[in-house]
Amino acid sequence: MKIRRTAQAAAVLVAGSLVLAACTSPSDDETTGDGGDNATEETTDSGEASSTAKEDLGDVQTVEGDIFYSTGQDEFTGYNSLTADTYSTYNNVIMDRIRPEGFFYFGTDGTIYENEEFGTAEAVSGLEGDDPLVIEYTVVDDAVWSDGNAIDFADFLFEWVSQNPAWLSPDPENPVFNHVSGTDYTQTNVPTGPQADSWDAKSFTVEYAEKYPDWRLVTGSYLLPAHVVAEQIGITEEELVQAILDEDVETLTEAAQFWNEGWLSSPGEVPAPEIAPSGSRYQFMEGGWTAGQSITLEANPNYWGTPAATERITFRFLDASGHNQALQNGDLNVIEPQATVDTLPQLEGLGDAVEVQTGSTLTWEHLDFNFNNGVFSDDEGGQALREAFAYCVPRQQIVDNLIKPVDPEAVVMNAREVFPFQPAYDEVVEASYDGRYDEVNLEEATRLIEESGIATPIDVRIGYSAPNPRRTSEIELIKSSCDQAGFNVTDIGSQDFFSNALVNGDYEVALFAWAGSGQISSGQNIYSTNYPQNYGGYSNETVDQAWVELSASLDETVHLEQTKIIEKELWDTLFGIPIFAHPGVIAHTAGMENVRQTATQNGVAWNAEQWKLAE
Questions:
Q1: C-alpha distances out from residue 499 to 79, 81, 492, 502, Å
Q2: CB–CB of 605/27 below 8 Å?
Q3: DSSP-derived secondary structure letter, 420
């Protein structure tokens, strides 16, 4: 299960980077998020430095062929993968090949790069300290949807309104658009000129309400065709734009009904091209969806820029447990398996027919406490018991037994917003954490439990999205240690943990991973009071205020100092327990070109349009 972190409760997300609790990955139970500052330069297995950006492939010609890849077993559910019900890794890995790519993308280490093939984003004011932050966006003239309709101001304005500005959805519990980002879109004011007097303008300006540090991720990252919505509700695209500018709630409520439901699909029914045009290098192939088996995309002949390297990509709906065998059989060409102690030996056993890449990732494993109810909530005096549990969790043993066989350089992770391989890590940890939980201390854990006055054994249910062999092993190690102190640890992993027990608070500890990208302020959505991805109900005024200051500044010094405050408070109050950064492993058919492991939450498919089979 991969859950991606959203940049903000109401921010548009970039390039398939951000996923909520219902998302899944073949590689792990991971929740999407961010690792703060950018990571170090990528290196290949040979140790040579390599670019983190997409390769410049020169004069590419699309070649005939089929490439097979799988994110996991879940079926595709719809062209609009931005609803609270469809926003998953399974959907976005497909839609990232079809939606316009936007103005920016993440490189393999979290660095954000400009996508000049789509357009440009130029700061008019705000980056040098003057107010406000104003960005002028220009889409290249040739950018069109596959039906020939231009990608223009109307599409960006509709993207903005679909995130429920307050005038459209004053009740946060009942948003008009069922957008994964919720309601109260506050990052920007309504997009305007310089050419936005015309609904089909290629240039427009966005003024940001605050000095939002992740502004590159807000506008143009998840476009859907405004002209299709207009046609479906019986008005022109120009009339739809005017309805937004006039704050016409009635018309937009009708538009939202189509946005919410009109792009949903039944298994095996390929979305019709007249309602689901492509804005990127691939499009849906007629008859290319076999329910329960796979969906095939084909190269978009009307794409204006560098074309897809290979004619077709087929996404198989295949459980992760079968990926290694499928690679060996040739049924898959690229896989991204969970990096367990068995992974590398299994892949190496496939011989010269397979190539393997490994590297660091911006995904990190953690145990999160339930503050809403139960023994770890503050209402029950849970601080002492949270400390006791932290003292008995054998983090070093988990890393030594389960991670170092894959990554010999792996260490116990002692921060949440920075990673051990990032430059700021040591400075942040020194300022926020004294190392008290680095080694198991059963004597201290027992003492704290006795002082709490709660009768032992104390039941602790640890939930995760199962099956997941590595997580099962982690809980076995935790139980072996913590039961000695007076806890009774129970494994309640289940396939529906995230959609059931987590959202209903029916657990004591949740075990999963946040998958990062390079964003700066995405953690606000996890640790701030009442924010959507704060599943455990944690609330701390100091943390809330620090995130407010961090998220309203473009100053890297402010980001670092507020991160230290946040990390220290999260350790002092024990929001949860970080464990380790995930090692990354990918494998692919020998001789394939441009398949590249990435540290970010996009996964190996981040540049799938560049993949090419050996000739």
A1: 22, 17, 14, 7
A2: no
A3: T
**Distance, CA of 5 to chain centre:** 5
Cα(593)–Cα(389) distance, integer angstroms: 47
Closest C-alpha among 613, 611, 615, 605 to residue 106: 605
pLDDT tens-place string over residues 562-575: 999 999 999 999 99
pLDDT at 38 over 80: no
CB 143 within 8 A of CB 118: yes
Model confidence at 45, in pLDDT bands (50, 70, 90)?
very low
Do 196 and 204 touch, CB atoms closer than 8 A? Answer: yes
Closest Cα to residue 71, out of 91, 98, 96? 91
In whole angstroms, how far apart are CA 69 and each of 91, 295, 329, 613? 14, 10, 13, 13
Partners of 294 in beta bridges: 290, 316
Q: Kindly state the DSSP code that residue 148 receives in the 8-state scheme.
A: S
- Percent of the chain as helix, strand, coil, to the nearest 5: 30, 20, 50
Going 374 to 377 to 380 to 384, the CA torsion angle's sign is positive
pTM: 0.83
Residue 30, token pair as written in the block: 């991971």
- State the DSSP string of 513-578: EEE--S-SSTTHHHHSTT-TT-TT----HHHHHHHHHHHT---HHHHHHHHHHHHHHHHHHTSEEE
Contact 61, 444 (CB under 8 A): no
Closest CA to 25 of 83, 75, 90: 90
| Residue predicted with more confidence, 28 or 80 | 80
Residue 273: asked if its preceding bond is cis (omega within 30°), the reply is no
Ramachandran bin of 16, using left for φ above 0, alpha for ψ from -120 to 50, beta for the remaining angles:
left
DSSP-assigned letter for residue 484? G
Q: Are 4 and 17 in contact (CB under 8 A)?
A: yes
Residues in the chain: 615
> CB neighbours of 607 closer than 8 A, spacing ≥ 6?
54, 55, 594, 596
Q: What is the pLDDT of residues 390-412, one digit of tens each?
A: 999 999 999 999 999 888 899 99
**Residue 456 is which amino acid?**
T
Place 267 in a pLDDT band, splitting at 50, 70 and 90.
very high
Q: Which residue has the tokens 């896989």?
A: 335
pLDDT band at 517 (very low <50, low <70, confident <90, very high): confident
Judged by phi (left if over 0) then psi (alpha if -120 to 50, else beta), residue 386 lies in alpha
What amino acid is encoded at 409 in this protein? E
* Measured CA angle at 137 (ends 131, 139), to 5 deg: 180
